[in-house]
Design a protein that fits this description.
single chain, 798 residues, alpha+beta, Ubiquitin-like (UB roll), 7-stranded mixed sheet, 6-stranded mixed sheet, 17 helices, globular
Length: 798
């Protein structure tokens, strides 16, 4: 704006190795208070690049603290939990401060003592142990709860971090990994120079968190320092939005592996094709090559080996490779069908719209929807038009070959019966019709506007039709909810119109042009438009609209040949509405220029377009008197609406593994380059299990994606608590017995847009099951776990 000072914003760098810069448009708001008066809260905004020292100086100024007074800052969260901010040079981003965080400034009293006591001896409050070495000896606990069972330690939710808490609890209850960190074996294997690692920071931060959780001192801890480290190396986890637990788990396992990789210098290895060699030889070679570059506790515990077989459909070339894996991502059977609720509007004007529930293919088109509805009615699919109605208008008019995935669950789908097939060139044409209520902008203004109301509809009319007949057809179409005027009401006053009126400036023809400008032309058709949207003035001219039956400020809206010659006509029936064409979709509408008052729709108008429509303009008084809005909105329900599709029985985990090992054809967007054909081919691919790790992580792929929607698969999966025999899935003849017992489960409740993560885990010390819900830990039974088949990740050790 003019004369306004520019608003300064900093560019903030995010990430450690994969760095990216972004302009910080919105600053972080922090709540500031003094230790002695925490009810007096002051809010200030800071950049993520501002340091703790800058915040402390600002707080000293706000609370008028003398320069000679020594101060220190605390991070306060929940009711009585504090965390010291001990690194003045740390930025807000590095310290993990978030929007709305409460900071407390404490100053020494007259005796030179800290009111909160010396940090190593504080017993009265909950202190979150940060990762900084200077504070390793702080003791902190929840009042009244001491000497907890090791491992039964909750994790505070820092704001949508339940996904992280669930993953950590599962890993924490993986005995070989936890023992490795508790016994400090990681310190001898830290790889600080690995360019693919995180300088050992992830491993050190995770080790410190595990030691807190297994110390037996705390009922819960706050993993803020750990989350900060994760956010530094993986910016996608730096904020406080809900994330995918599996993505965090994958990052953590990979980060720990690289931080603890025993290989200091990775050799270059030329991979060889199987070239007909025995699987045993190729598999051993692949694993040896993997160990030459990747050797860590993560590999020891979690890594197994796939066999991948690709077959070229053109030359039959077979390519066999063996690839390591850290977890099994198992597919779930996709739903092949979905239920849609739609409304059928019949041609019979006295019939109310009827609601149906139809079962359609999940990957299908609009014709499939019409075919499904045709099975419940006596209407041919070719004589249906499928529309999406929103805000009193046609949001979309679908073509028969459009995908059903473009229809959302929340859409109001209306299907209109028509007497013709709209793709055929006949003597009739289908016209979308909108209803509008006119109003003046002010009492002294001659300008008019319009607002949409009611439900739009489709009407089929001859390509050549008179205005009178079109009016009568429209009135007949609405006869269920529009009351007819009686003779006394109809014979009111003398009506006249000017013979100088033209259509698009083409000379007098007796038809009044209202000239309302592109009244629903552009932005007002947007989804964000309000329900009672105001349309532009009718006195502004537009070439895109041709008014038929305009009223020239009279209530009649129709000029006959006589009245257009200057003669008045008394007793002309009063019309309830006027109508005009709005042509914004390149749908050709033309007229015969004579006094016969015929309207002709051009033969090239073969397709429906929601932007070309006939608008019926109602005077507010006439609308109130003759238009029954309740009757217009009324509809009936078909018995199919109450039909509840039978849910399929749950599937077994082994079914998912079989689906994983099923041969499939690569998609067109993901072809394989055949070395024989020297071109990309849609090969067939088959995955098999060759060797399995000591601890098997199984991930159920519950989220599915398409161009128009994301969905969560709610298929129930049964899994065993013990004795999961994987031997039948191993193609290695020398594999031997391979049975697993369950030790941890990550759960997700809710849908794609949100939800909550929790975890079940078996404590390695007492062998009992527990339920972890952020900071809360409670006892659980095997029956509870088995009863809830709706799971995300599973951990099975041999």
């Amino acid at each position: 704006m003019e004369n306004q000072e520019p608003i300064a914003r900093k560019v903030v760098e995010q990430g450690m190795f994969v760095k990216h810069c972004k302009v910080e448009v919105y600053l972080t708001e922090l709540k500031l208070c003094e230790n002695g008066n925490m009810n007096n809260v002051v809010t200030r905004r800071f950049s993520k690049a501002d340091t703790i020292d800058m915040i402390e100086k600002e707080m000293r100024t706000i609370f008028s603290i003398p320069d000679d007074k020594e101060t220190r800052l605390w991070n306060k969260y929940m009711s009585n939990t504090f965390e010291p901010l001990n690194k003045p040079e740390s930025t807000i981003q590095d310290a993990g401060l978030y929007q709305g965080q409460m900071l407390v400034i404490e100053q020494k009293n007259q005796e030179g003592q800290w009111p909160r006591g010396s940090m190593p001896n504080v017993k009265n409050s909950n202190y979150c142990l940060p990762s900084y070495a200077a504070y390793k000896n702080y003791e902190y606990s929840e009042p009244g709860r001491h000497n907890e069972q090791p491992g039964l330690c909750g994790l505070s939710n820092l704001g949508n971090t339940c996904f992280m808490n669930s993953a950590i609890q599962c890993l924490s209850n993986t005995p070989p990994l936890t023992e490795y960190f508790l016994n400090d074996k990681y310190q001898d294997e830290l790889n600080m120079d690995n360019p693919l690692g995180m300088r050992g920071e992830i491993a050190k931060s995770y080790a410190e968190l595990i030691k807190q959780m297994w110390s037996g001192k705390y009922s819960y801890v706050t993993p803020r320092a750990f989350k900060t480290q994760v956010g530094r190396f993986a910016p996608q986890f730096s904020g406080y939005q809900q994330q995918d637990c599996q993505e965090l788990l994958a990052f953590l396992l990979d980060g720990l592996h690289e931080d603890l990789n025993r290989i200091r210098k990775k050799p270059y290895i030329q991979l060889k094709d199987a070239d007909g060699r025995p699987d045993k030889v190729v598999a051993e070679e692949a694993w040896e090559n993997h160990i030459k570059r990747n050797d860590s506790v993560i590999v020891d515990i979690f890594h197994g080996l796939f066999k991948s077989t690709l077959v070229c459909p053109k030359c039959a070339k077979i390519s066999v490779t063996f690839d390591p894996f850290c977890y099994l991502t198992l597919p779930l059977p996709m739903k092949k069908e979905r239920a849609l609720e739609v409304y059928l509007v019949r041609m019979d004007p006295l019939s109310k719209p009827m609601q149906y529930k139809v079962i359609v293919p999940k990957i299908g088109n609009i014709m499939d929807l019409c075919t499904a509805l045709s099975a419940l009615t006596d209407i041919s699919p070719e004589k249906m038009v499928v529309t999406d109605i929103y805000n009193h208008r046609f949001h979309r008019i679908f073509a028969m070959d459009e995908n059903l995935s473009s229809i959302m669950e929340r859409d109001d789908i209306y299907i209109f019966e028509t007497p013709i097939n709209r793709t055929e060139d006949t003597e009739q044409v289908i016209i979308p019709v909108y209803l509008r209520e006119k109003f003046r902008h002010t009492s002294y203004s001659h300008h008019h506007g319009s607002t949409l109301f009611g439900q739009p509809f489709l009407i089929t009319v001859p390509r050549n039709i008179t205005e009178d007949k079109l009016y009568n057809m429209l009135l007949l179409r609405m006869c269920r909810y529009v009351k007819a005027a009686n003779d006394t009401e109809e014979n009111e006053g003398s009506l006249h119109c000017n013979k100088e009126h033209t259509i698009n400036g083409n000379g007098p023809n007796g038809i009044h042009e209202e000239g309302s400008p592109s009244e629903m032309e552009t932005d007002e058709l947007d989804d964000e438009s309000s329900q009672d949207q105001e349309l532009p003035s009718e006195n502004e001219n537009s070439q895109s609209e041709d008014s038929v039956g305009g009223d020239n400020d009279s209530e009649n809206g129709l000029c006959t040949e006589d009245t257009c010659k200057g003669q008045s006509l008394t007793g002309q029936k009063k019309r309830l509405f006027t109508f005009q064409f709005t042509n914004l979709g390149n749908t050709d509408i033309s007229y015969i220029k004579d006094d016969t008052r015929y309207i002709r729709f051009d033969e090239r108008q073969l397709r429906l377009d929601e932007r070309s429509y006939l608008a019926l303009d109602w005077d507010p008084k006439l609308k109130k008197r003759y238009f029954d809005e309740n009757a217009a909105e009324d509809f009936e329900k078909h018995e199919s609406v109450d039909f509840i599709p039978q849910k399929k029985a749950f599937m077994k985990l082994k079914d998912c593994i079989e689906l994983f090992t099923t041969k499939e054809k690569l998609g067109a967007e993901d072809p394989w380059y055949c070395p024989n054909c020297k071109e990309h081919q849609q090969a067939t691919k088959k995955l098999d299990l060759w060797s399995l790790p000591p601890v098997l992580v199984v991930h159920l792929k519950r989220f599915s994606y398409s161009r128009y929607m994301r969905d969560k698969l709610d298929t129930l999966v049964e899994f065993p608590i013990s004795d999961l025999d994987m031997s039948t899935f191993l193609i290695n003849p020398n594999a031997g017995p391979c049975c697993y017992n369950l030790i941890a489960v990550s759960n997700h409740y809710g849908g794609m847009g949100g939800g909550h993560y929790t975890a079940f885990a078996k404590n390695k010390d007492d062998g009992k099951w527990y339920y972890f819900d952020d900071s809360s830990v409670s006892a659980a039974s095997e029956e509870q776990i088995v009863a809830r088949y709706y799971r995300w990740n599973r951990f099975f050790p041999c």
